[in-house]
Design brief:
Length: 234
């Protein structure tokens, strides 16, 4: 089983929102992602991690076409919520529109042969310019949610299983300093963390590589050239 990642799809099929306002490289980006998805050789036995900002939709009805379009692609699609996923309501309602082979993770985890996958949205980290009391409140809440997901992952994990966590927000601040998120990843012995949220120039300060035994990958679709990236094979 191969595990790929690509996030921040920002789809808007039911109510089109042109993405080329963010740069000409975003023109027709969903067609290019689908083409590259097929070129990557992803099969229904493989997994594709989608770490948030999936659809611009404001409600579940508007999001259905976007989610169905993702579901039509090969592979097991695993999603978490991003900060722009306003359509993501209760988990039961979200799961009610998912096609077979598409999964939503929230305060829980999923196991496939040789691998366990968990995750949470995350939030802006302390040390970020302008970090407020409200940011700190949300940050602490997301720490609890990530811990819940990691605990569920550990219940599922068997000897030899790899452990991958998804976040939408980067688990570091702009200075790449450790955070409560990175401490949880270290404590729970996570092998790989995939995150998104960053675009354009913001990607320059993104940390990618190994820290405290955990490998980190930025998977925003524009950062990846709109092509799913192979993370690992188990």
């Amino acid at each position: 089983m191969k595990i790929f990642a690509i996030g921040d799809l920002h789809l808007s099929l039911s109510r089109p929102k042109p993405m080329d306002v963010f740069g000409t490289h975003w023109s027709d980006h969903w067609s290019r992602i689908r083409e590259n998805w097929v070129k990557a050789g992803i099969t229904n036995e493989d997994g594709v991690l989608i770490p948030g900002d999936i659809s611009w939709a404001m409600n579940l009805s508007e999001a259905t076409e976007d989610i169905s379009s993702i579901g039509a692609l090969p592979g097991k699609k695993l999603m978490i919520r991003g900060n722009h996923d306003y359509w993501w309501s209760s988990l039961s309602k979200v799961r009610s529109i998912l096609a077979e082979g598409t999964f939503a993770i929230q305060n829980d985890a999923l196991r496939f042969p040789g691998i366990v996958i968990c995750g949470s949205r995350g939030w802006t980290c302390p040390g970020t310019p302008g970090f407020s009391q409200e940011d700190n409140k949300l940050y602490l809440r997301e720490l609890l949610r990530l811990e819940l997901s990691l605990k569920e992952a550990k219940k599922l994990q068997t000897e030899g299983d790899a452990l991958i966590a998804m976040m939408h927000f980067p688990p570091f601040n702009e200075q790449r300093e450790p955070s409560g998120f990175t401490e949880l990843f270290r404590m729970f012995e996570v092998d790989h963390v995939v995150y998104g949220h960053l675009h354009g120039r913001s990607c320059r300060n993104a940390f990618e590589g190994v820290s405290s035994g955990v490998e980190y990958t930025l998977a925003s679709c524009d950062h990846l050239g709109f092509s799913p990236k192979l993370i690992t094979e188990v």
